[in-house]
């Protein structure tokens, strides 16, 4: 266990020193601020552009904004945050392969399964922290300007998107166990996410795809109930476990 904690401490210090966590915190806080700001400024912006649009033959009606508008913006911005997260952590394994530092840790008695679990745990920790930070900032501003209760099933919608991020992290882990470059990790992760997205176009498959979890508009508006997402949640959790579990034997057999 000492070797595991030592490795996790190394990973933590490296993330802090490299500035990765600072970049992510700033990015997710900015998104948290932008969500209510965009909603608040939309009526003013439309009023400012009303004359120009009228000259082009477009009539601008009064725009009403509320907390639901801000939460819709929140779920539009979070994908950008997740993409940034993937780009930043795509080399979390591959840099160890290329620098040779992982060999040194393994010769000191660190089991390869602990490498997989510790890196997965830290990515999950950072994703959860940044995601909840952005959510808290948006929630606070929305509570100040409007009423958050207008958004139906807000917490389940937030939990669904968090779980989708966890699935993406599990894809990073298994792609990293298979690949030696961060480009391959990014392409592998993106390809599986896209495959899930396109599978969602088939009605019989949609309810089983992890990408259904990011369809939060129907939850927030109340047009869909929680039962519509149960199968996708269960499948996503199972896929996360399978990806992490499969990464361990793959890593054990890998030439480092």
Give a structural overview.
By secondary structure, the chain is an all-alpha fold. The protein has one domain. It is 78% helix and 0% strand. The protein has 11 helices and no strands.
Topology of this structure?
Blueprint: H1 2-18, H2 20-55, H3 67-89, H4 94-99, H5 101-107, H6 112-145, H7 154-178, H8 182-199, H9 203-206, H10 217-221, H11 230-253
Helix pairs in contact: 1-6, 2-3, 2-6, 3-6, 3-7, 6-7, 6-11, 7-8, 7-11
Query: Which segments are poorly predicted (pLDDT under 50) over 5 or more consecutive residues?
Result: none
Overall SS class:
mainly alpha
Give the helix tally.
11
Structurally, the number of domains stands at: 1
Helical percentage: over 70%
Q: In sequence order, what are the helices and strands, one letter per element?
A: HHHHHHHHHHH
Query: What's the pLDDT, averaged over the residues?
Result: 86
Anisotropy-based shape: globular
Number of strands: 0
Radius of gyration: 21 Å
Tags for this model:
mainly alpha; 256 residues; 11 helices
Task: Offer a concise description of the structure.
The chain is 78% helix and 0% strand. It is mostly helical.
């Amino acid at each position: 266990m000492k070797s595991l904690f030592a490795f996790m401490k190394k990973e933590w210090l490296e993330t802090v020193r490299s500035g990765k966590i600072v970049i992510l915190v700033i990015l997710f806080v900015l998104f948290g601020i932008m969500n209510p700001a965009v909603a608040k400024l939309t009526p003013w912006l439309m009023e400012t552009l009303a004359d120009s649009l009228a000259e082009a033959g477009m009539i601008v009606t009064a725009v009403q904004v509320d907390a639901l508008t801000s939460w819709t913006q929140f779920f539009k911005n979070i994908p950008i945050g997740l993409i940034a997260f993937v780009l930043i952590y795509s080399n979390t394994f591959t840099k160890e392969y290329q620098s040779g530092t992982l060999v040194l840790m393994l010769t000191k008695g660190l089991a390869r399964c602990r490498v997989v679990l510790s890196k997965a745990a830290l990515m999950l920790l950072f994703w959860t922290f940044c995601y909840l930070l952005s959510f808290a900032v948006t929630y606070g501003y929305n509570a100040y300007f409007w009423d958050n209760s207008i958004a139906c099933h807000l917490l389940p919608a937030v939990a669904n998107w968090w779980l989708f991020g966890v699935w993406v992290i599990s894809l990073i882990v298994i792609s990293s166990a298979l690949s030696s470059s961060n480009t391959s990790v990014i392409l592998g992760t993106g390809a599986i996410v896209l495959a899930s997205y396109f599978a969602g176009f088939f009605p019989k498959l949609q309810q089983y795809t992890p990408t259904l979890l990011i369809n939060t508009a129907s939850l927030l508006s109340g047009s869909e109930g929680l039962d519509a997402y149960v199968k996708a949640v269960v499948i996503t959790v199972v896929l996360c476990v399978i990806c992490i579990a499969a990464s361990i034997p793959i890593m054990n057999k890998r030439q480092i």
